Amino acid sequence: MRSLDCPWCFLPILQESQRGWRDSARSVQMGVSGCCGAQSHRYPLPSSRLHLHRNVQADRRRHTHARTSVVSTFFPKAVSPYLTLSRMHYPSDRNTYAIQTQFFYGPALLINPVTQESSTSVSFYVPQGTWYDFATQKPVSGAGSTITYSDIDTSSIPILVSGGSIIPARVKSAMTTKELRDNDFELLVAPDAQGNASGTLYLDDGESLTQKGTSEIVFSWDGKKIKMAGTFGFSTNVGVKTITIMGDAPQKYELNEGLGDAWEHDVGDLKKL
Fold it and tell me: Residue 97 belongs to what domain range?
């Protein structure tokens, strides 16, 4: 069975069966959730009907939101690939060597798409460490083993968040990157086994080749306080509206802070939402 690989990240997008290239939402989930979704005008998929499929449309809407909401988190590290196979993050873990359909989006999101046609479940390997389900924001058990997600609808992809990460995500998606830059952020905190987490955010005007000013921001969480530090050379009117602490009982708090100077807050002083 042949596969069609993304020319940018080399991840498989489609598989060819005896009936030809599959026209199913499952077949293109990896494409719409990865970098090739944004490059489809340059590298068209074998079937021109794929983009008309209602499940593919729903897939694109949901995963475009997830992809664009976190893109500012890791784009400044342009010298490093932002879509990578698991073995690149866990080179000493031999269980990751043969995995071809699981990949990292940025440094913290582990994507586990359903790749079997008409299937509603997927089994995937969870590397050692602390992990959270992106959708439920609750811990995932089974680190160091293969686990199974069941009852997955055709517009869903299981996503895990690496413990120790803070993901600055836009509160909502947009049709263009210009519109997206006008949307505020929320902080998604995934504590590690010691209760700590950190993450970064890069900001510029999104258009100029030579920037007049940029911001390289670092967020940190110590189990009690959320802090923001870094450099703040880019002026912006958007801010951080909320913070969510993942865990057995995920909790969202109102924050309403800016991105122009350092700050810190004890979570106990924030309003619960």
Answer: 3-162
